[in-house]
């Protein structure tokens, strides 16, 4: 079975993907597969090697710093979004669509290629669940056109924290404006909001989160309820054992002794969950909260709450 750990990016998806991949029933495409495609190994030993390795730092800041330090020449046998590999072997542009990819975008030719790509890895790794990490646009409707039983773990994080984090990432291309960034143009109403806030970059990051979350909402509405699970990053930090238990159950996996040993190696703490309050200026935060009030409420967050 193919399943996704999906989210907007900087929402906690890496923590979820890497922790779930400690389970012996989970397979994945690794950083080594992505960076050394000539091996064409299908990841046969990914799980064994990864479950022997120590976890990366659990906090968002430490995770970002370790990623930057190791990025050049990095080829970890750990879960990867593997965008370069998928772009090269399956569909050029899968990593950078200007809008969400939908069921109607799937062609018979692409369906065969995706089924072969993920199916061959599921067989080689002999896993119960092949878990793929995706960020940005959901692409869930598109992939479900090839994998009707697809399951989705959607990791949701407070849009204020996500916007603040995007601004600090070297890969964020919002500085060039929404007519040049990866996500394509803003919808007219969001473009108007950006203009009304003097084209503020924190506001643009917040509106980018809104645009992606709207896409996730539409994608969820197109999926059978039993194939979609929303999990909140903040709930994971507050009670990781309970939340990962829910995720394992959703994927049809048991919390066995081996997973317990792997889970125990991860230190999951609240850390910098609300650092946006100190890292954005008062006026910037007020503007971000103004444009995010309604979308945050739809996802269970309250602006002005003492969190």
Q: What do these coordinates show?
A:
The chain has helices at 13-20, 31-35, 46-52, 60-70, 83-89, 108-125, 140-144, 159-168, 188-196, 201-221, 233-238, 240-250, 257-264, 276-279, 282-298; strands at residues 2-7, 26-27, 129-135, 151-156, 228-232. Helix 8 crosses helix 10 (201-221). The chain is an alpha/beta fold. It is globular and about 55 Å long. A 5-stranded parallel β-sheet has the order 2-3-1-4-5, sandwiched between helices. 48% of the residues lie in helices and 8% in strands. It has a single domain, classed as 3-Layer(aba) Sandwich (Rossmann fold), CATH 3.40.50.
Strand order, main sheet: write it out: 2-3-1-4-5
- As a whole number of angstroms, the C-alpha radius of gyration is 19 Å
Number of helices: 15
How does the overall form come out from the CA principal axes? globular
Kindly state the mean pLDDT as a whole number? Answer: 91
Number of domains: 1
N-to-C SSE series? EHEHHHHHEHEHHHEHHHHH
- Total E-strand runs: 5
Distance between the termini: 38 Å
Specify the structural class: alpha/beta
Largest sheet at a glance? 5 strands, parallel
CATH topology: Rossmann fold
**In CATH, what is the class?**
Alpha Beta
- Indicate the percent of residues in helices: 40-55%
CATH architecture grouping: 3-Layer(aba) Sandwich
The protein's oligomeric status is single chain
Which spans of ≥5 residues are poorly predicted at pLDDT below 50? 59-73
Which strand-content bin applies to the residues? 5-15%
